[in-house]
Amino acid sequence: MKEKGYGYQTISNYKRSLNASFRIAIADDLVRKNPFDFKLNEVIEDDRKKRQALTEEQEEKLLSFVRKDRVYKKHYDAIVILLKTGLRISELCGLTRQDIDLENGVIHVNHQLLYSKETGYYIETPKSNLTKKYNKYHEDSLPKITPHILCHTFCSRLANRNMNPKSLQYIMGHSNISITLNLYAHASAESVKAELRSMIA
Q1: Ordered domains of the chain (ranges, CATH)
Q2: Helix, strand or coil for residue 100?
Q3: Contact call for residues 25 and 37 (beta carbons, < 8 A)
Q4: Taking the CB of residue 192, how many other CB atoms lie within 10 A of it?
């Protein structure tokens, strides 16, 4: 598949589906071995770009820009919620008034709104042109920002502040602790510098 131009993520998705199918086949005594029970990154190179969380400075610049911009200010609340809660875009779009408990400061996330060809629903989300517009008028450019980057930023911020990994796993809804621990392994340069300064001082 790699030779045909398929990306790592696409191949990984196919492998995951086939792996699950063969596990079911083994459980049903249809086959003896699962040919897809291996680590994909040991067979082909994982060439996906690493997602970079925004720095606190970039976050402030983004929010300041969006708050004042005539086109994007309508997305300000959504961006703040994504940054400060770690919600996924589908979870944000699925929120209802009943999900928000202002008295206890809690958002109940138990459903999400998704696109489906059968139902024809479509969710309008903040476009990535936001970054392009910001960079056009500012010398200190921002990286490409997607809803997932905002979620990743929230999670990374908590990891950099030494939140217990199990607590962070619970908040983010990660099925596997290794996903959460990966955020700790990729601590930002800023957090490393800050920690070194505190140790030297």
Answers
A1: 8-42 (no CATH), 56-200 (1.10.443.10)
A2: strand
A3: no
A4: 11
- Output the tens digit of pLDDT for each of the chain's 201 residues: 777 778 877 888 888 888 888 888 888 888 889 998 888 888 888 777 776 778 888 889 999 999 999 999 999 998 888 888 877 777 787 777 887 878 877 777 666 666 666 666 544 443 446 677 778 878 888 877 777 777 778 888 888 787 888 888 877 777 777 777 776 655 555 666 676 677 776
Total-model pTM: 0.46
- Tokens representing 68 are 């004042």
The one-letter amino acid code at 90 reads S
Using CA atoms, how far apart are residues 109 and 93, in angstroms rounded to an integer? 11
Q: Rounded to 5 degrees, what angle do the CA atoms 185, 132, 189 make?
A: 20
